């Protein structure tokens, strides 16, 4: 464990929004293919609300930090990371931990943050856009199956 510290919003027990607490936590050591991202914005999604309430299917043991999508600036990079450097604007999808000031994440999880988007905008669209893309693809697959639009009026399903 690194001696570096950061602040994170944690779920220490499940319940209403008041269970969220900010704590100082250790920032884990960075691997050779990882980056440290200073988080400027984190998305808040329905999954985060389910986690807080204890209704999400897979979560780490308590306490943990929710948050699937973040945007910010790269602080430092591991020795094997060549595509990113300190100061780069980036957004990322993470499994958990996005409600933190700093994250250590695999460089492959980063996306270039477009200059046309603020950190808040960039953090807010990643997971939602990904979900909509999957729905669009699955909708196309359903349309290309043997199910026909007219089946909906006869009570059919895909």
What form results from the Cα inertia axes? globular
Biggest β-sheet strands, sense, barrel: 5 strands, antiparallel
Structural class: alpha+beta
- Determine the number of helices (DSSP H or I, runs of at least 4 residues): 2
Strand content: 25-35%
Q: Give the radius of gyration.
A: 19 Å
- The arrangement of helices and strands along the chain is EEEHEEEEH
Q: How many DSSP E strands?
A: 7
Low-confidence stretches: 147-158
Order of strands, main sheet, comes to: 6-3-4-5-7
Helix content: 10-25%
N-C termini distance: 50 Å
Q: Round the mean pLDDT to the nearest integer and report it.
A: 84
Task: Explain the overall architecture.
This protein has 158 residues and is of the alpha+beta class. Helices cover 21% and strands 28% of the residues. It is built from two helices and seven strands, in the order βββαββββα. The strands form two sheets. The protein has a five-stranded antiparallel sheet with strand order 6-3-4-5-7. A two-stranded antiparallel sheet has the order 1-2. A hairpin with an 8-residue loop joins β1 and β2. The relative contact order is 0.19.
Short description:
The chain is of the alpha+beta class and 158 residues long. The chain is 21% helix and 28% strand.
Key traits:
two-stranded antiparallel sheet, alpha+beta, 158 residues, five-stranded antiparallel sheet
